[in-house]
Sequence to fold (577 residues):
Amino acid sequence: MDKMFHAVRLDSDKCTGCINCIKRCPTGAIRIRSGKAKVLKELCIDCGECIRVCPTHAMKAVYDHLSITEGYEYKIALLSPTIFGQIRNLEDLDYVMTAFKKIGFDDVFETSRAAELISEATRKYMNSKSYEYPVISSACPTVVKLIQLKFPDLCSHVSPIKSPMQIAAKMAREEAINKTGLDTEKIGVFYISPCTSEVTEAKNPIIHGETGIDGVIGICEVYHQLVATMEKLDKVDAIANSGLIGVSWAIDGGESAALMSSHYLFAGGIENVMNVLEEIEEKKFKRLHFVELRACDAGCVGGILTVKNPFMAKARTQILRKYLPVSMNHLETDGIPTEMLLGASINPVEGMKLSDNLFDALAIMQKIDGIEKKLPGLDCGACGSPSCKTFAEDVALGYSTENDCVFIMRDQVQHFAKQMSLLGMNLGENRADDND
Amino acid sequence: MSEAVKLTYDVSADDFTHAGEASGAIKRTLKKLGIDMEIVRRVSIAVYEGEINMVIHANGGVIEAEISPSCIEIWLKDKGPGIKDIELAMQEGYSTARDHIRALGFGAGMGLPNIKKYTDDMKIDTEIGVGTTVYMKVNFT
Fold:
Protein backbone atom coordinates (compact mmCIF):
# COMPACT_ATOMS: atom_id res chain seq x y z
CA MET A 1 0.00 0.00 0.00
CA ASP A 2 1.13 3.49 -0.91
CA LYS A 3 2.43 5.10 2.29
CA MET A 4 0.83 8.38 1.27
CA PHE A 5 -2.58 6.84 0.59
CA HIS A 6 -5.49 9.09 1.50
CA ALA A 7 -9.19 8.36 1.20
CA VAL A 8 -9.82 11.70 -0.50
CA ARG A 9 -9.49 11.95 -4.27
CA LEU A 10 -10.03 14.78 -6.73
CA ASP A 11 -12.01 14.47 -9.94
CA SER A 12 -10.09 17.11 -11.92
CA ASP A 13 -12.77 17.42 -14.60
CA LYS A 14 -15.32 18.50 -12.02
CA CYS A 15 -13.02 20.82 -10.05
CA THR A 16 -13.71 24.45 -10.95
CA GLY A 17 -10.83 25.76 -8.86
CA CYS A 18 -13.16 27.54 -6.44
CA ILE A 19 -11.76 28.14 -3.00
CA ASN A 20 -14.27 26.34 -0.75
CA CYS A 21 -12.00 23.42 0.11
CA ILE A 22 -8.82 25.43 0.73
CA LYS A 23 -10.71 27.66 3.16
CA ARG A 24 -12.19 24.76 5.10
CA CYS A 25 -9.16 22.45 5.38
CA PRO A 26 -8.11 22.43 9.07
CA THR A 27 -4.43 21.79 8.36
CA GLY A 28 -4.16 24.11 5.35
CA ALA A 29 -3.36 21.12 3.14
CA ILE A 30 -5.03 22.26 -0.08
CA ARG A 31 -3.96 24.79 -2.71
CA ILE A 32 -5.41 25.73 -6.08
CA ARG A 33 -2.75 25.23 -8.73
CA SER A 34 -3.41 25.82 -12.44
CA GLY A 35 -7.10 26.15 -11.68
CA LYS A 36 -7.46 22.83 -9.84
CA ALA A 37 -7.32 21.79 -6.21
CA LYS A 38 -4.16 20.05 -5.08
CA VAL A 39 -3.93 18.16 -1.79
CA LEU A 40 -0.57 18.30 -0.01
CA LYS A 41 -0.55 14.68 1.10
CA GLU A 42 1.86 15.09 4.00
CA LEU A 43 -0.56 17.53 5.67
CA CYS A 44 -3.84 15.68 4.94
CA ILE A 45 -5.42 14.05 8.00
CA ASP A 46 -8.37 12.45 6.14
CA CYS A 47 -11.06 14.41 7.97
CA GLY A 48 -13.19 14.73 4.84
CA GLU A 49 -14.09 18.41 5.37
CA CYS A 50 -13.15 19.18 1.75
CA ILE A 51 -15.61 16.53 0.56
CA ARG A 52 -18.37 18.10 2.65
CA VAL A 53 -17.91 21.61 1.22
CA CYS A 54 -17.08 20.86 -2.42
CA PRO A 55 -20.00 22.36 -4.38
CA THR A 56 -19.32 20.33 -7.55
CA HIS A 57 -18.57 17.03 -5.80
CA ALA A 58 -15.11 17.00 -7.33
CA MET A 59 -13.60 16.00 -3.98
CA LYS A 60 -14.55 12.40 -3.52
CA ALA A 61 -14.30 9.90 -0.72
CA VAL A 62 -12.44 6.75 -1.66
CA TYR A 63 -13.83 3.43 -0.46
CA ASP A 64 -14.43 -0.06 -1.80
CA HIS A 65 -17.59 -1.27 -3.49
CA LEU A 66 -19.43 -4.45 -2.62
CA SER A 67 -17.71 -6.22 -5.52
CA ILE A 68 -14.47 -6.28 -3.51
CA THR A 69 -15.88 -9.23 -1.56
CA GLU A 70 -15.81 -11.44 -4.67
CA GLY A 71 -13.31 -14.26 -4.61
CA TYR A 72 -13.40 -14.89 -0.86
CA GLU A 73 -14.92 -18.13 0.30
CA TYR A 74 -16.17 -16.71 3.60
CA LYS A 75 -17.12 -13.05 3.77
CA ILE A 76 -17.51 -11.17 7.02
CA ALA A 77 -19.12 -7.75 7.35
CA LEU A 78 -17.53 -5.83 10.19
CA LEU A 79 -20.09 -3.27 11.30
CA SER A 80 -19.33 0.08 12.88
CA PRO A 81 -22.08 0.79 15.44
CA THR A 82 -22.74 4.07 13.57
CA ILE A 83 -24.84 2.06 11.12
CA PHE A 84 -27.61 1.39 13.64
CA GLY A 85 -28.50 5.08 14.03
CA GLN A 86 -28.94 5.34 10.26
CA ILE A 87 -32.02 3.13 10.31
CA ARG A 88 -35.46 4.51 11.18
CA ASN A 89 -37.52 2.84 13.89
CA LEU A 90 -34.91 0.17 14.52
CA GLU A 91 -35.69 -1.81 17.64
CA ASP A 92 -33.28 -4.67 17.36
CA LEU A 93 -29.68 -4.78 16.13
CA ASP A 94 -30.38 -8.21 14.61
CA TYR A 95 -32.51 -6.74 11.80
CA VAL A 96 -29.45 -4.97 10.46
CA MET A 97 -27.17 -7.94 11.10
CA THR A 98 -29.51 -10.41 9.34
CA ALA A 99 -29.95 -8.07 6.37
CA PHE A 100 -26.16 -8.07 5.86
CA LYS A 101 -26.30 -11.86 5.53
CA LYS A 102 -28.95 -11.46 2.84
CA ILE A 103 -26.86 -9.05 0.74
CA GLY A 104 -23.95 -11.40 0.30
CA PHE A 105 -22.06 -11.79 3.56
CA ASP A 106 -21.62 -15.12 5.34
CA ASP A 107 -21.20 -13.57 8.73
CA VAL A 108 -21.57 -10.24 10.53
CA PHE A 109 -19.52 -8.94 13.43
CA GLU A 110 -19.97 -5.68 15.36
CA THR A 111 -16.91 -3.57 16.18
CA SER A 112 -18.89 -2.52 19.26
CA ARG A 113 -17.96 -5.92 20.72
CA ALA A 114 -14.31 -4.89 20.60
CA ALA A 115 -15.26 -1.43 21.84
CA GLU A 116 -16.61 -2.98 25.05
CA LEU A 117 -13.31 -4.77 25.61
CA ILE A 118 -11.46 -1.51 24.97
CA SER A 119 -13.66 0.30 27.49
CA GLU A 120 -12.77 -2.33 30.07
CA ALA A 121 -9.07 -2.20 29.18
CA THR A 122 -9.09 1.60 29.34
CA ARG A 123 -10.63 1.50 32.82
CA LYS A 124 -7.77 -0.76 33.89
CA TYR A 125 -5.28 1.56 32.24
CA MET A 126 -6.76 4.61 33.97
CA ASN A 127 -6.58 2.81 37.32
CA SER A 128 -2.94 1.91 36.75
CA LYS A 129 -2.03 5.63 36.92
CA SER A 130 1.05 4.89 34.85
CA TYR A 131 0.56 7.90 32.57
CA GLU A 132 0.22 11.64 32.50
CA TYR A 133 -3.28 13.14 32.62
CA PRO A 134 -5.27 13.53 30.50
CA VAL A 135 -5.42 10.35 28.43
CA ILE A 136 -6.60 11.14 24.90
CA SER A 137 -8.67 8.54 23.02
CA SER A 138 -6.87 6.85 20.13
CA ALA A 139 -10.09 5.85 18.37
CA CYS A 140 -10.40 8.62 15.77
CA PRO A 141 -7.45 8.32 13.34
CA THR A 142 -7.93 11.90 12.16
CA VAL A 143 -7.55 13.21 15.71
CA VAL A 144 -4.40 11.16 16.26
CA LYS A 145 -2.92 12.44 12.98
CA LEU A 146 -3.82 16.01 13.96
CA ILE A 147 -1.97 15.54 17.25
CA GLN A 148 1.07 14.08 15.47
CA LEU A 149 1.14 17.00 13.05
CA LYS A 150 0.16 20.04 15.10
CA PHE A 151 0.41 19.05 18.77
CA PRO A 152 3.55 16.90 18.94
CA ASP A 153 3.86 17.41 22.66
CA LEU A 154 0.57 15.61 23.25
CA CYS A 155 1.59 12.39 21.44
CA SER A 156 2.48 10.79 24.76
CA HIS A 157 -1.08 11.42 26.02
CA VAL A 158 -2.72 9.25 23.36
CA SER A 159 -4.13 6.02 24.78
CA PRO A 160 -1.88 3.03 23.96
CA ILE A 161 -4.89 0.82 23.24
CA LYS A 162 -5.86 -0.11 19.67
CA SER A 163 -9.08 0.96 17.98
CA PRO A 164 -12.32 -1.10 17.88
CA MET A 165 -11.96 -1.63 14.12
CA GLN A 166 -8.62 -3.35 14.48
CA ILE A 167 -9.37 -5.48 17.48
CA ALA A 168 -12.74 -6.50 16.03
CA ALA A 169 -11.16 -7.46 12.69
CA LYS A 170 -8.83 -9.85 14.49
CA MET A 171 -11.62 -11.27 16.68
CA ALA A 172 -13.92 -11.80 13.68
CA ARG A 173 -11.22 -13.57 11.68
CA GLU A 174 -10.27 -15.88 14.52
CA GLU A 175 -13.91 -16.71 15.19
CA ALA A 176 -14.43 -17.52 11.50
CA ILE A 177 -11.34 -19.76 11.35
CA ASN A 178 -12.61 -21.72 14.35
CA LYS A 179 -16.11 -21.94 12.93
CA THR A 180 -15.27 -22.92 9.34
CA GLY A 181 -11.81 -24.47 9.52
CA LEU A 182 -10.87 -22.41 6.44
CA ASP A 183 -7.41 -20.98 5.80
CA THR A 184 -7.13 -17.34 6.75
CA GLU A 185 -6.62 -16.14 3.15
CA LYS A 186 -9.98 -17.62 2.15
CA ILE A 187 -11.71 -15.45 4.72
CA GLY A 188 -12.45 -11.84 3.76
CA VAL A 189 -13.05 -9.22 6.46
CA PHE A 190 -14.81 -6.10 5.19
CA TYR A 191 -15.28 -3.06 7.36
CA ILE A 192 -18.49 -1.07 6.87
CA SER A 193 -17.14 2.40 7.59
CA PRO A 194 -18.70 5.74 8.57
CA CYS A 195 -15.72 7.84 7.46
CA THR A 196 -12.72 8.44 5.22
CA SER A 197 -10.52 8.53 8.28
CA GLU A 198 -11.04 4.83 8.98
CA VAL A 199 -10.79 3.96 5.28
CA THR A 200 -7.27 5.37 5.30
CA GLU A 201 -6.39 3.76 8.62
CA ALA A 202 -7.57 0.34 7.41
CA LYS A 203 -5.72 0.58 4.12
CA ASN A 204 -2.62 2.40 5.28
CA PRO A 205 -2.39 1.68 8.99
CA ILE A 206 0.15 4.18 10.24
CA ILE A 207 -1.28 4.54 13.74
CA HIS A 208 -2.68 1.24 14.80
CA GLY A 209 -0.60 -1.29 12.89
CA GLU A 210 -1.69 -4.06 10.53
CA THR A 211 -5.48 -4.45 10.48
CA GLY A 212 -6.10 -7.63 8.48
CA ILE A 213 -9.03 -5.86 6.79
CA ASP A 214 -9.53 -6.87 3.16
CA GLY A 215 -11.79 -4.02 2.13
CA VAL A 216 -13.54 -0.94 3.48
CA ILE A 217 -17.04 -0.24 2.25
CA GLY A 218 -18.77 3.07 2.97
CA ILE A 219 -22.05 2.90 4.88
CA CYS A 220 -23.56 5.02 2.08
CA GLU A 221 -22.58 2.32 -0.43
CA VAL A 222 -24.71 -0.38 1.19
CA TYR A 223 -27.39 1.74 2.87
CA HIS A 224 -30.23 1.62 0.33
CA GLN A 225 -29.79 -2.05 -0.47
CA LEU A 226 -29.70 -2.76 3.23
CA VAL A 227 -32.91 -0.88 4.03
CA ALA A 228 -34.74 -2.53 1.13
CA THR A 229 -33.58 -5.94 2.34
CA MET A 230 -34.59 -5.23 5.94
CA GLU A 231 -38.11 -4.35 4.88
CA LYS A 232 -38.52 -7.82 3.33
CA LEU A 233 -37.07 -9.85 6.20
CA ASP A 234 -39.43 -12.52 7.51
CA LYS A 235 -37.04 -14.14 9.94
CA VAL A 236 -34.37 -12.51 12.06
CA ASP A 237 -31.26 -14.39 13.22
CA ALA A 238 -29.89 -13.83 16.70
CA ILE A 239 -26.39 -12.60 15.89
CA ALA A 240 -25.87 -9.31 17.74
CA ASN A 241 -23.67 -9.48 20.77
CA SER A 242 -23.19 -5.87 21.85
CA GLY A 243 -24.40 -3.97 24.87
CA LEU A 244 -25.17 -0.36 25.57
CA ILE A 245 -21.51 0.46 26.15
CA GLY A 246 -20.35 -0.79 22.76
CA VAL A 247 -23.16 0.77 20.72
CA SER A 248 -22.68 4.11 22.51
CA TRP A 249 -19.21 4.45 20.97
CA ALA A 250 -21.01 5.68 17.84
CA ILE A 251 -22.12 8.89 19.52
CA ASP A 252 -20.50 11.75 21.40
CA GLY A 253 -19.42 10.95 24.91
CA GLY A 254 -20.10 7.24 24.53
CA GLU A 255 -16.51 6.15 24.92
CA SER A 256 -16.04 8.42 27.94
CA ALA A 257 -19.24 7.42 29.70
CA ALA A 258 -18.05 3.81 29.74
CA LEU A 259 -15.09 4.84 31.91
CA MET A 260 -17.39 5.53 34.87
CA SER A 261 -15.62 8.79 35.68
CA SER A 262 -16.92 12.34 35.56
CA HIS A 263 -13.55 13.86 34.75
CA TYR A 264 -13.87 13.63 31.01
CA LEU A 265 -14.33 15.94 28.06
CA PHE A 266 -15.91 15.27 24.70
CA ALA A 267 -15.44 17.49 21.67
CA GLY A 268 -16.63 16.77 18.14
CA GLY A 269 -15.99 18.71 14.94
CA ILE A 270 -12.47 19.38 13.80
CA GLU A 271 -12.40 23.08 14.74
CA ASN A 272 -13.59 22.31 18.27
CA VAL A 273 -11.04 19.52 18.54
CA MET A 274 -8.23 21.91 17.60
CA ASN A 275 -9.34 24.48 20.16
CA VAL A 276 -9.47 21.85 22.91
CA LEU A 277 -6.03 20.51 22.00
CA GLU A 278 -4.63 24.07 22.19
CA GLU A 279 -5.88 24.35 25.76
CA ILE A 280 -4.71 20.90 26.80
CA GLU A 281 -1.30 21.71 25.36
CA GLU A 282 -1.14 24.73 27.63
CA LYS A 283 -2.16 22.53 30.56
CA LYS A 284 -5.11 24.74 31.32
CA PHE A 285 -7.31 21.98 32.72
CA LYS A 286 -5.36 19.76 35.07
CA ARG A 287 -8.28 17.86 36.58
CA LEU A 288 -9.21 16.28 33.29
CA HIS A 289 -8.63 12.50 33.20
CA PHE A 290 -9.90 11.45 29.80
CA VAL A 291 -10.43 13.31 26.55
CA GLU A 292 -12.63 11.88 23.82
CA LEU A 293 -12.17 13.75 20.56
CA ARG A 294 -13.85 13.05 17.25
CA ALA A 295 -13.30 14.85 13.97
CA CYS A 296 -17.05 14.88 13.32
CA ASP A 297 -20.01 16.61 14.96
CA ALA A 298 -22.00 14.38 17.33
CA GLY A 299 -19.26 11.74 17.13
CA CYS A 300 -18.79 8.96 14.56
CA VAL A 301 -22.44 9.21 13.44
CA GLY A 302 -21.33 12.46 11.77
CA GLY A 303 -18.84 10.65 9.51
CA ILE A 304 -18.67 11.68 5.86
CA LEU A 305 -19.76 8.21 4.64
CA THR A 306 -22.95 8.12 6.71
CA VAL A 307 -26.32 8.92 5.20
CA LYS A 308 -28.48 10.55 7.86
CA ASN A 309 -28.19 13.81 9.76
CA PRO A 310 -25.68 13.19 12.60
CA PHE A 311 -27.93 14.56 15.33
CA MET A 312 -30.91 12.52 14.17
CA ALA A 313 -28.70 9.44 14.03
CA LYS A 314 -27.45 10.19 17.51
CA ALA A 315 -31.01 10.46 18.87
CA ARG A 316 -31.93 7.16 17.19
CA THR A 317 -28.89 5.47 18.73
CA GLN A 318 -29.88 6.76 22.18
CA ILE A 319 -33.37 5.29 21.83
CA LEU A 320 -32.10 2.02 20.40
CA ARG A 321 -29.59 1.41 23.20
CA LYS A 322 -32.16 1.95 25.92
CA TYR A 323 -33.06 -1.70 26.35
CA LEU A 324 -29.66 -3.19 25.60
CA PRO A 325 -27.73 -4.96 28.35
CA VAL A 326 -24.92 -2.77 29.69
CA SER A 327 -22.05 -4.80 28.26
CA MET A 328 -21.86 -8.18 26.53
CA ASN A 329 -18.12 -8.53 26.14
CA HIS A 330 -15.57 -8.84 28.91
CA LEU A 331 -11.83 -9.35 29.18
CA GLU A 332 -10.79 -12.81 30.25
CA THR A 333 -7.58 -11.64 31.85
CA ASP A 334 -6.79 -9.44 34.85
CA GLY A 335 -4.43 -7.15 32.99
CA ILE A 336 -4.71 -5.63 29.52
CA PRO A 337 -3.94 -8.31 26.88
CA THR A 338 -0.80 -7.26 24.99
CA GLU A 339 -2.49 -7.84 21.61
CA MET A 340 -4.81 -4.95 22.47
CA LEU A 341 -1.90 -2.54 22.83
CA LEU A 342 -0.44 -0.48 20.00
CA GLY A 343 2.81 -2.04 18.84
CA ALA A 344 4.64 1.27 18.54
CA SER A 345 4.32 4.60 20.28
CA ILE A 346 2.56 7.55 18.62
CA ASN A 347 5.29 9.86 17.36
CA PRO A 348 5.22 13.43 16.06
CA VAL A 349 5.11 13.91 12.30
CA GLU A 350 7.12 16.75 10.79
CA GLY A 351 5.20 18.97 8.45
CA MET A 352 4.43 22.26 10.16
CA LYS A 353 7.96 23.33 11.13
CA LEU A 354 9.67 25.79 8.80
CA SER A 355 13.09 24.22 9.20
CA ASP A 356 15.00 21.92 11.54
CA ASN A 357 17.55 24.64 12.00
CA LEU A 358 16.45 27.65 14.08
CA PHE A 359 18.68 30.07 12.14
CA ASP A 360 17.09 28.99 8.87
CA ALA A 361 13.60 28.99 10.37
CA LEU A 362 14.06 32.57 11.56
CA ALA A 363 15.37 33.63 8.15
CA ILE A 364 12.34 32.07 6.46
CA MET A 365 10.02 33.71 8.96
CA GLN A 366 11.54 37.11 8.24
CA LYS A 367 11.04 36.54 4.57
CA ILE A 368 7.42 35.55 5.23
CA ASP A 369 6.90 38.72 7.30
CA GLY A 370 8.31 40.85 4.51
CA ILE A 371 6.02 39.28 1.93
CA GLU A 372 2.98 39.41 4.18
CA LYS A 373 3.39 43.16 4.62
CA LYS A 374 2.85 43.62 0.88
CA LEU A 375 -0.39 41.63 0.89
CA PRO A 376 -3.87 43.09 1.40
CA GLY A 377 -4.76 40.79 4.32
CA LEU A 378 -8.17 40.01 2.84
CA ASP A 379 -7.61 36.24 2.74
CA CYS A 380 -9.54 36.18 -0.53
CA GLY A 381 -7.96 32.92 -1.67
CA ALA A 382 -7.69 34.02 -5.30
CA CYS A 383 -3.97 33.17 -5.24
CA GLY A 384 -4.82 29.54 -4.46
CA SER A 385 -3.59 29.63 -0.85
CA PRO A 386 -6.07 29.65 2.02
CA SER A 387 -4.93 32.95 3.60
CA CYS A 388 -2.52 35.81 2.99
CA LYS A 389 -0.27 34.39 5.70
CA THR A 390 -0.14 30.96 4.07
CA PHE A 391 0.43 32.60 0.70
CA ALA A 392 3.38 34.52 2.16
CA GLU A 393 4.73 31.17 3.41
CA ASP A 394 4.19 29.54 0.04
CA VAL A 395 6.08 32.37 -1.67
CA ALA A 396 8.90 32.28 0.89
CA LEU A 397 9.25 28.53 0.43
CA GLY A 398 9.17 28.86 -3.36
CA TYR A 399 5.80 27.24 -4.04
CA SER A 400 4.16 30.42 -5.32
CA THR A 401 5.27 33.77 -6.73
CA GLU A 402 4.15 37.20 -5.55
CA ASN A 403 2.42 37.83 -8.87
CA ASP A 404 -0.13 35.15 -8.00
CA CYS A 405 -1.69 37.75 -5.67
CA VAL A 406 -4.29 39.66 -7.72
CA PHE A 407 -3.71 42.81 -5.67
CA ILE A 408 0.03 42.84 -6.29
CA MET A 409 -0.71 42.08 -9.91
CA ARG A 410 -3.21 44.98 -10.12
CA ASP A 411 -0.67 47.42 -8.66
CA GLN A 412 1.86 46.26 -11.18
CA VAL A 413 -0.56 46.66 -14.06
CA GLN A 414 -1.49 50.15 -12.84
CA HIS A 415 2.19 50.99 -12.56
CA PHE A 416 2.81 49.81 -16.10
CA ALA A 417 -0.23 51.67 -17.38
CA LYS A 418 1.08 54.88 -15.80
CA GLN A 419 4.51 54.32 -17.31
CA MET A 420 2.94 53.72 -20.70
CA SER A 421 0.84 56.86 -20.54
CA LEU A 422 3.87 58.89 -19.40
CA LEU A 423 5.81 57.47 -22.29
CA GLY A 424 2.95 58.35 -24.61
CA MET A 425 2.85 61.92 -23.31
CA ASN A 426 6.59 62.28 -23.72
CA LEU A 427 6.36 61.01 -27.27
CA GLY A 428 3.53 63.46 -27.96
CA GLU A 429 5.57 66.35 -26.57
CA ASN A 430 8.54 65.31 -28.65
CA ARG A 431 6.34 65.30 -31.75
CA ALA A 432 5.02 68.72 -30.86
CA ASP A 433 8.61 69.90 -30.53
CA ASP A 434 9.38 68.45 -33.94
CA ASN A 435 6.53 70.41 -35.47
CA ASP A 436 7.88 73.75 -34.30
CA MET B 1 21.20 36.36 9.04
CA SER B 2 21.46 38.10 12.34
CA GLU B 3 18.35 40.25 12.50
CA ALA B 4 15.63 39.01 14.81
CA VAL B 5 12.03 38.30 13.89
CA LYS B 6 9.90 41.14 15.27
CA LEU B 7 6.29 40.83 16.30
CA THR B 8 3.89 43.54 17.50
CA TYR B 9 0.44 43.19 19.03
CA ASP B 10 -2.06 45.72 20.31
CA VAL B 11 -3.79 44.95 23.59
CA SER B 12 -7.11 46.75 23.95
CA ALA B 13 -8.36 48.18 27.23
CA ASP B 14 -10.91 46.45 29.46
CA ASP B 15 -11.40 43.67 26.94
CA PHE B 16 -11.00 40.40 28.79
CA THR B 17 -12.53 38.35 26.05
CA HIS B 18 -9.69 39.15 23.69
CA ALA B 19 -6.92 38.99 26.26
CA GLY B 20 -4.72 36.03 25.43
CA GLU B 21 -4.63 36.68 21.70
CA ALA B 22 -1.08 38.02 21.72
CA SER B 23 0.25 35.16 23.85
CA GLY B 24 -1.58 32.71 21.57
CA ALA B 25 -0.03 34.25 18.47
CA ILE B 26 3.46 34.24 20.00
CA LYS B 27 2.96 30.60 20.98
CA ARG B 28 2.00 29.61 17.42
CA THR B 29 5.01 31.45 16.02
CA LEU B 30 7.42 29.71 18.42
CA LYS B 31 5.91 26.32 17.59
CA LYS B 32 6.36 26.98 13.91
CA LEU B 33 10.01 27.77 14.55
CA GLY B 34 10.34 24.40 16.25
CA ILE B 35 11.12 25.74 19.73
CA ASP B 36 10.93 23.18 22.54
CA MET B 37 7.37 22.94 23.83
CA GLU B 38 8.33 23.41 27.48
CA ILE B 39 9.91 26.76 26.59
CA VAL B 40 6.94 27.70 24.43
CA ARG B 41 4.64 27.02 27.39
CA ARG B 42 6.71 29.22 29.74
CA VAL B 43 6.69 32.11 27.26
CA SER B 44 2.99 31.66 26.65
CA ILE B 45 2.09 31.83 30.36
CA ALA B 46 4.38 34.80 31.06
CA VAL B 47 3.01 36.82 28.14
CA TYR B 48 -0.55 35.88 29.06
CA GLU B 49 -0.04 37.20 32.59
CA GLY B 50 1.42 40.42 31.19
CA GLU B 51 -1.43 40.79 28.76
CA ILE B 52 -4.03 40.42 31.51
CA ASN B 53 -2.16 43.01 33.61
CA MET B 54 -2.30 45.47 30.75
CA VAL B 55 -6.06 45.00 30.46
CA ILE B 56 -6.72 45.24 34.19
CA HIS B 57 -4.42 48.06 35.19
CA ALA B 58 -3.28 50.04 32.20
CA ASN B 59 -5.98 50.57 29.56
CA GLY B 60 -4.19 48.18 27.24
CA GLY B 61 -1.00 48.88 25.36
CA VAL B 62 1.42 47.31 22.94
CA ILE B 63 3.35 44.04 23.11
CA GLU B 64 6.55 43.81 21.14
CA ALA B 65 8.55 40.62 20.77
CA GLU B 66 11.88 39.84 19.19
CA ILE B 67 12.93 36.31 18.44
CA SER B 68 16.62 35.64 17.87
CA PRO B 69 18.36 32.28 17.53
CA SER B 70 19.17 32.26 21.24
CA CYS B 71 16.12 33.74 22.96
CA ILE B 72 12.86 35.60 22.83
CA GLU B 73 12.65 39.09 24.33
CA ILE B 74 9.32 40.73 25.02
CA TRP B 75 8.36 44.28 25.96
CA LEU B 76 4.89 44.94 27.32
CA LYS B 77 4.42 48.69 27.02
CA ASP B 78 1.51 50.58 28.49
CA LYS B 79 0.58 54.19 29.24
CA GLY B 80 -1.17 53.28 32.47
CA PRO B 81 -0.87 54.79 35.96
CA GLY B 82 2.52 53.21 36.71
CA ILE B 83 3.46 50.94 39.63
CA LYS B 84 3.90 52.74 42.97
CA ASP B 85 5.85 50.05 44.78
CA ILE B 86 7.50 47.44 42.56
CA GLU B 87 8.72 45.34 45.48
CA LEU B 88 5.19 45.06 46.80
CA ALA B 89 3.78 44.35 43.34
CA MET B 90 6.25 41.47 42.96
CA GLN B 91 4.90 39.79 46.10
CA GLU B 92 2.63 36.81 45.52
CA GLY B 93 -0.97 37.63 46.36
CA TYR B 94 -0.57 41.42 46.30
CA SER B 95 -2.92 43.13 43.85
CA THR B 96 -4.46 46.56 43.35
CA ALA B 97 -7.15 45.20 41.05
CA ARG B 98 -10.60 46.68 41.61
CA ASP B 99 -13.47 44.59 42.93
CA HIS B 100 -15.28 44.12 39.62
CA ILE B 101 -12.06 42.70 38.19
CA ARG B 102 -11.65 40.32 41.12
CA ALA B 103 -15.26 39.24 40.65
CA LEU B 104 -14.19 37.90 37.26
CA GLY B 105 -11.53 35.74 38.87
CA PHE B 106 -8.60 37.98 38.00
CA GLY B 107 -6.46 40.08 40.31
CA ALA B 108 -5.11 37.21 42.41
CA GLY B 109 -1.77 38.95 42.69
CA MET B 110 0.12 36.25 40.78
CA GLY B 111 0.73 38.10 37.49
CA LEU B 112 4.17 39.62 38.03
CA PRO B 113 5.42 36.77 40.29
CA ASN B 114 4.46 34.28 37.56
CA ILE B 115 6.26 36.29 34.91
CA LYS B 116 9.37 36.18 37.09
CA LYS B 117 8.94 32.47 37.69
CA TYR B 118 8.61 31.51 34.02
CA THR B 119 11.24 33.78 32.47
CA ASP B 120 15.04 33.90 32.60
CA ASP B 121 15.17 37.65 32.97
CA MET B 122 12.63 40.30 33.88
CA LYS B 123 12.79 44.06 34.38
CA ILE B 124 10.13 46.62 35.20
CA ASP B 125 10.52 50.20 34.09
CA THR B 126 7.75 52.38 35.48
CA GLU B 127 6.92 56.03 36.00
CA ILE B 128 3.87 57.23 37.90
CA GLY B 129 1.35 58.82 35.56
CA VAL B 130 3.38 57.96 32.47
CA GLY B 131 3.31 54.20 32.10
CA THR B 132 5.10 50.91 32.58
CA THR B 133 7.25 48.67 30.43
CA VAL B 134 7.70 45.10 31.56
CA TYR B 135 10.65 43.43 29.85
CA MET B 136 11.07 39.68 29.86
CA LYS B 137 13.48 37.26 28.26
CA VAL B 138 13.37 33.49 27.85
CA ASN B 139 16.44 31.65 26.59
CA PHE B 140 16.05 28.79 24.13
CA THR B 141 18.87 26.70 25.54
